[in-house]
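Recall that a protein's primary structure is simply its ordered list of amino acids. Everything else, from secondary elements to tertiary packing, is in principle encoded there. The following example makes that idea concrete.
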Amino acid sequence: MAHVREMEAADIEAVAAIRVRGWQAAYAGIVPQTYLDAMSVEGDAAQRRQWFSQPGQESRNLVALGDRGPVGWICCGPYRGEVPGPGPVGEVYALYVLPDLIGQGIGRILLDEAHAQMKDQGFEASALWVLRDNHRAQRFYERAGYQADGAAQDDVYDGITLTELRYQRML
C-alpha cells in the first residue's frame, strides 16, 4: 500500500510523468487529442521546477509512494477565486495517479491526507473542479463526499471549450 509524504524537488520528474500520463489517460475523448499529444513530461517538469523554486507557496504538494517511487500526486491549498461558502474553503487543485494503478485506493489515500492537512490549516470545506464529461472522476469525488454545487466554468483547449463543474464537501 502507498504512503504519503510532502513532495520534494527530487520528485519533480516523477510527478510530471504522473500528471502528463494522468491527463492523457483521464481526458482521452474529452480534451482534444492534439492538446494531449502536445503534452510532454519534460515540459511539465520544467514548469514544475520553476514553480517549486518560488518561495512563499501556499499550496501543498503531496506524493503517494509505492514500490516504484511516486505513483500519485495531489496539490491543494486555499480556494482560488471568490470563496463559495461562509467559512474558509480549501481547494484540491489537482489529483493524479499513474493510470495502471487507478482503482487501488491511491487516489483516496492522497485525498484523505489532503483533507486532513486542509482541516489542520483551518479550512472548513474543500472545493474542486471536474470536467463535465469526466464521469469517472465525478464518481470518485462523490464517493469521497463531494457534491456538485451548481457552479460551472469554461476552459479552452486547442480551440475547444470544455466546462468544469465545481464540487464541494465539508472537512
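The CA atoms of residues 130 and 137 lie 7 Å apart. Helices lie at 12-26, 33-38, 41-52, 106-120, 135-143.
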